[in-house]
Amino acid sequence: DGGITQSPKYLFRKEGQNVTLSCEQNLNHDAMYWYRQDPGQGLRLIYYSQIVNDFQKGDIAEGYSVSREKKESFPLTVTSAQKNPTAFYLCASTRQGQGDYGYTFGSGTRLTVV
Amino acid sequence: GQSLEQPSEVTAVEGAIVQINCTYQTSGFYGLSWYQQHDGGAPTFLSYNALDGLEETGRFSSFLSRSDSYGYLLLQELQMKDSASYFCAVGSNYQLIWGAGTKLIIKP
């Protein structure tokens, strides 16, 4: 079955450490997105990519970095510059467009700073 | 700025009908979508309206009025499993702009 796989499901980060969240899709979708969700809040866009080797900053890109070397993969690195990284991170993809085909989401990664 | 407004919480009784409203103000508009998210889970796509009117999918219906920048999600024959947060989102400039979500509480 096609879908999006995020790993790990839970991740613990020490102060000053960089961590990378994995996102892989086999839906042949062009566009991929990273969102952050804090408890009781909506989704905030971190980065998005509409095509391989190209990506754009979202509303809260500071302290994060991404790459899009393959169509299937869009990893997110949470750097030490992100001062409050504890949150639920969601990766999504869609066929090229404005959301009319619906976004497919991965199951998320819950990141906690220890 | 761009914003979507929806109630933070709605309470209804099992078997009843509930409507969740969404008003939006965005620089572009390519359609209104609705997503459901259970606690601890990922959002799942429910419906999409690009044109004015009502779209029906089983127990769920979604309505859009572009002239009023307004839409709603209608849930009928509520079941306990419908307890979740519901998000409206507007397609604009190759992104989805998200509302803060409405927590639907269903009482037996």
Write the layout of secondary structure elements.
The complex is a heterodimer of chains A (114) and B (108).
Chain A: E1 4-7, E2 10-13, E3 19-25, E4 31-37, E5 43-51, E6 54-57, E7 64-66, E8 76-78, E9 87-94, E10 104-105, E11 109-113
Parallel strand pairs in A: 2-11
Antiparallel strand pairs in A: 1-3, 3-8, 4-5, 4-9, 5-6, 7-8, 9-10, 9-11
Chain B: E1 3-5, E2 9-13, E3 18-25, E4 32-37, E5 44-49, E6 53-57, E7 60-65, E8 70-75, E9 84-92, E10 95-98, E11 102-107
Please, could you describe this protein's structure?
- The complex is a heterodimer of chains A (114) and B (108).
- By secondary structure, chain A is mostly beta strands.
- In chain A, 0% of the residues lie in helices and 49% in strands.
- Chain A contains no helices and eleven strands.
- Chain A starts with a strand and ends with a strand.
- Chain B has strands at 3-5, 9-13, 18-25, 32-37, 44-49, 53-57, 60-65, 70-75, 84-92, 95-98, 102-107.
- In chain B, 0% of the residues lie in helices and 59% in strands.
- Chain B is built from no helices and eleven strands.
- In chain B, strand 7 (60-65) and strand 8 (70-75) form a beta hairpin.
- The termini of chain B are far apart.
- The mean pLDDT of chain B is 94.
- Chains A and B meet through strand 5 and strand 10 of A and strand 5, strand 9 and strand 10 of B.
Keywords:
heterodimer, A: 114 residues, mainly beta, seven-stranded mixed beta sheet, four-stranded antiparallel beta sheet, 11 strands, 0% helix, B: 108 residues, six-stranded mixed beta sheet, five-stranded antiparallel beta sheet
Put the structure in a nutshell.
The complex is a heterodimer of chains A (114) and B (108). Chain A is mostly beta strands and 114 residues long. In chain A, 0% of the residues lie in helices and 49% in strands.
